[in-house]
Amino acid sequence: MSFDLGCFGRDGHGYLDRMIPSLPPLPPLPGENDEFMYRPGGRSIIAVLSDEHQQLTELSAELARTARPPQELADVVTAAVSRHLSSEEQYLYPTVKALLPDGAKLSEREIERDTQILKQLALLETLPRDSAAFTELAEAIDTDLHHHREACAADIFPGLRELATEVELIRLGNRIEVAQEAAPTRPHPDAPTSPPWNKITDPALGIVDKIRDVMAGRTTYPEDLPTK
Length: 228
Known about the structure:
The protein contains six helices and no strands. It is mainly alpha-helical. The protein has one domain (45-220): Four Helix Bundle (Hemerythrin (Met), subunit A). The termini are far apart.
């Protein structure tokens, strides 16, 4: 089976025989036929996700260690993690399955962790922020997010660097960022976790979530948190 990503590799012929799945064909861009000169704009999927892992673990650590944390912080952690996991399930894990020798096993492990985190976030929304149960659950979420960050850094990203081209990684990074803009901002642990269904359901859930966010005046982006 072959997949047309619309990009070129370094196989000596200008084309990449092995293509990453689950990405739509892209129109040719200026300079794309020159494999040594063409470079799309944007950041690689590894750079995008690594930065997000850093930000998310900092936010989750703050949530876990703060006595009666502000509602805005709890909302932002929930929204940011929900967007992040949605985009990974749409683009990171299908790529991991296609490229890495143990990609199916790694992806299943991380999707199971994703589902667990989403269930924890859904429960967290129901608990008083000054309760011991809230603190305990926030600590568990923080632990799981740190494990997820470490697993990606150790088990997934090195393989992607070795087996995917820079062009592929950047185009995947662009898709991750686009997917997050349409992604849910609330946990939906029972939603589909694999393409093509999650690429249909997640944007639909995202629309509903954003309407609810506006009506509730809910803060969902880290940059909108009050400065200390």
